[in-house]
Amino acid sequence: MNRKLLILGSIFGGTAVLLGAFGAHGLQKVVDASAIASFETGVRYQMYHALLLLLLGGVLTCSEKRKNILFYLLLFGVILFSGSIYLLATQGATKIDFTTIALFTPLGGTLLIISWGILLYTFIKR
After folding, report:
1. DSSP string covering 46-59, please?
2. Prediction pTM value
3. Read out DSSP for 60-87?
4. Are 13 and 54 in contact (CB under 8 A)?
5. 71 and 109 in contact (C-beta within 8 Å)?
6. Cα gap 100→121, rounded to integer Å
7. What does the alpha-carbon distance between residue 11 and residue 17 come to, in Å, rounded to a whole number?
8. Average pLDDT per run of 10 along the chain, which is 126 residues long?
9. What pLDDT is recorded for position 99?
10. How far apart are CA 19 and CA 105, in angstroms?
11. Is 124 buried (19+), middle (13-18) or exposed (0-12) by CB count in 10 A?
12. Domain range summary for the chain, segments of one domain joined by +
């Protein structure tokens, strides 16, 4: 499980850097400042959770079952939260109406909050 956590953390971290560079340099002329700010929020939260995955896989100790639960919560949480923000922020450039997926953002955020709650419970239980 540690290997999966480290691989996912690395993928999320690397793509956060790529998407951050794209947002900073590629979106400036095609979307407005509020869309860029939203895009940056998605990148920031993706990076935060990439770092959490790396900590879970390399440093923090908890049961394999709990790590497995956290893996999937973080995987789907980041995809739904950050992914929906990326699509919504770039809809001005793509001319594709992504407003129907706006409900995925709070769902993804809820999954991320649940993962932090499980982590807190793990630490309190120690």
Report:
1. HHHHHHHHHHHHHT
2. 0.90
3. ----HHHHHHHHHHHHHHHHHHHHHHHH
4. yes
5. no
6. 34
7. 10
8. 94 96 87 91 97 93 91 97 94 85 94 97 90
9. 86
10. 18
11. exposed
12. 2-125
